[in-house]
Amino acid sequence: MTALAGLEQFLISKGCKLTRSRRIILQGLLDNEGWSNAREIYAYVQARVHKINFSTIYRNLDALTSIGLLCRVERADAVNYYTLNQASGHHHHLICKSCHKICQLDFCPLPQMDPETLQNFTEVECRFDLYGFCHECQENKKYTDGNGSD
Amino acid sequence: MTALAGLEQFLISKGCKLTRSRRIILQGLLDNEGWSNAREIYAYVQARVHKINFSTIYRNLDALTSIGLLCRVERADAVNYYTLNQASGHHHHLICKSCHKICQLDFCPLPQMDPETLQNFTEVECRFDLYGFCHECQENKKYTDGNGSD
DNA sequence: ATATCAAATGCAAATAGTTGCATTAGCAAG
DNA sequence: CTTGCTAATGCAACTATTTGCATTTGATAT
Ligand SMILES: [Mn+2]
Ligand SMILES: [Mn+2]
Ligand SMILES: [Zn+2]
Ligand SMILES: [Zn+2]
After folding, report:
1. pTM exceeding the 0.85 threshold for the entire prediction
2. Which nucleotide minimizes the distance between its C1' and the CA of B39?
3. Which residues are CB-neighbours of A91 under 8 A, at least 6 positions away?
């Protein structure tokens, strides 16, 4: 079974309809291999002859993320990026403030938290992202130094 | 010394200019006692006769937050709320998905993290917010039940 | 009090993303 | 193959927030 077919099957198993747009969005994410934003995905779908609206892109990225097919990460410049979720379990991300590289962080602080700390809140979801400088960007700073931003 | 004077002094100690807008914004946050968003703060300043631009509000809320005078929290509906930072140290927040109540969470997962988990990232900043249902909203659900949203 | 200069402001245009509502298209049942 | 229902889509208007650039103003030095 092709990778695309697997994703499509998962989508259907979650009670979502397999539409033309969704098929091409998934194909685009498979092609890309990295992280893409809504603009990039829009351009990909548009290029495949299929006319599409930005709100459809956004709604589908939301839908695919909420069924667990995609990972969504908000970069330091406040733009959301998406990739196919390769991971088996719940996880978070490390994001480089310089080159915007995104690394998977196989750790969630929530399960280890003392219930008392949670002040009787229930059904708690955790937003946890770490923003720093990746190893390469830190290395580059040593030589370039000074104002090394994007 | 009045509370306002204390805030103003802190502002100056951080090398910021004490402008008319900032004085009124701080007064507004002192008056309010809770959390306010940009619109509410804009309305407050506007009402005090002082004409002001939204971009000035946003820039000031950023500035006051980054010197540690304010806490900023992004609600589940993606609107940012601000309050005077009463806390002494670094902390995070618990946010109710129903009534939007914000509670201080005196815990940060970052210091306890194994350095290896951070994958050689440096100068790491932590975005950590917990979204759930507060005790009261959970109680209300028991009786109301069903579709109990905002 | 006056001059100076950077920081702060106003304005207008842009950004990413969301939403209500009318229309379309998957998909399943007949 | 046709019908029907719901989820998905297109469209246009809207949201919160950001940005570049010209102008103003607060703090400081004269
Ligand atoms: Mn991931
Ligand atoms: Mn706080
Ligand atoms: Zn990097
Ligand atoms: Zn609540």
Report:
1. yes
2. D16
3. A104, A105, A106, A107, A108
- B1-86, CATH topology level: Arc Repressor Mutant, subunit A (1.10.10)
B104: left (phi over 0), alpha (psi -120 to 50) or beta: beta
Amino acid at B64: L
Q: How far is the centre of ligand 4, averaged over its atoms, from the C-alpha of B71 (Å)?
A: 19
> Residues B105-133: pLDDT tens digits?
999 999 999 889 999 999 999 999 999 99
CA distance A130 to A10: 30
What tens digit of pLDDT does each residue of A98-143 get? 899 999 999 999 999 988 999 999 999 999 999 999 999 988 776 6
Topology of domain A88-150 in CATH is: Dna Ligase; domain 1 (3.30.1490)
Q: Where in chain B is the domain with CATH 1.10.10.10?
A: 1-86
Ligand 3 centroid to Cα of residue A150, in Å, is 10
Write down which residues 6-35 in B have CB closer than 7 A to strand D. Answer: 12, 17-20
Beta-ladder partners of A133: B122
Those nucleotides of strand D lying less than 7 Å from any protein Cβ are: 7-13, 16-20, 25-27
Q: With pLDDT > 70 as the criterion, what percentage of chain A qualifies?
A: 93
